[in-house]
Amino acid sequence: MWGNAMHDLTGFQRDLLYVIAGQDDPHGLAIKEELEDYYESEIHHGRLYPNLDALVDKGLVEKGELDRRTNYYALTQRGHRELEARREWEERYLDAEAAEVSL
Hints:
The chain is mostly helical. It has 4 helices and 2 strands; from the N terminus they run H-H-H-E-E-H.
């Protein structure tokens, strides 16, 4: 069964979780650049930071200060559990699709 919080997230917020989980140094600019590469378009601060704050508010991400101008973001234990539950949920359907294709 997948977690309670993931169904409330937008696709963009889920992508933020994946990027934060996959980066060694997840700070705002690095997250922004990774998403811009993926989406092949500019991600505005007015979109990025309110969504990061929403993930913090949901208890999926923690936010801290690297210095006066730079915040870091890290998944909480709950964030890790939610991503793992989402991965398991997706794999059920991907495995079923792969089985159908091989028939």
